[in-house]
Specification:
Helix content: 10-25%
Shape: globular
Number of strands: 9
Bound molecules: zinc ion
CATH topology: Cytidine Deaminase, domain 2
CATH superfamily: Cytidine Deaminase, domain 2
Number of helices: 2
Structural class: mainly beta
Radius of gyration: 14 Å
Order of helices and strands: EHEEEEEHEEE
Strand content: 35-45%
CATH architecture: 3-Layer(aba) Sandwich
CATH class: Alpha Beta
Largest sheet: 7 strands, mixed, barrel
């Protein structure tokens, strides 16, 4: 399942207060999945996440979390989504990749601590993640 590919140095930077907001939101929603829109900016390969937006009309359950993208206003600061995996898996599901939005998909696995944050691109490749 691993292909040789050109290495693109990419990174996701998450602000600590954003991480704290995500972990508390995930804990409130547990055992259901939670989903939030990531607000930030992308500059020379680094995606800086500075804020969160609760998506309109989101629907979540123990194994899914989604929202109709058509309801979103066009906003260049929406750089991706974060959602939780109460099952404890950090890997994006096929459905996650189909519903990929923006530049990055962050998955937070149970028990939603700082070490449980993982970033992925639209092809399911892992992106380096740092908390600043
Ligand atoms: Zn998922």
């Amino acid at each position: 399942m691993f292909f040789k590919k050109k290495k693109i140095e990419r990174m996701v930077s998450l602000k600590t207060d954003v991480v704290d907001s995500i972990t508390s939101y995930c804990k409130i929603k547990h055992p259901n999945e939670s989903i939030l829109i990531l607000k930030g900016k992308s500059k020379s390969g680094t995606i800086l996440i500075e804020g969160l937006v609760i998506p309109p009309f989101s629907h979540t359950g123990p194994t899914f979390a989604g929202f109709p993208h058509s309801f979103l206003p066009f906003d260049m600061s929406y750089v991706g989504i974060v959602h939780s995996h109460p099952s404890g898996s950090a890997e994006p599901s096929l459905e996650d990749l189909h519903n990929f939005f923006g530049l990055v998909s962050i998955i937070v696995k149970f028990p939603y601590e700082k070490k449980d944050f993982f970033a992925w691109d639209g092809k399911g490749n892992s992106i380096k993640l740092e908390i600043v």
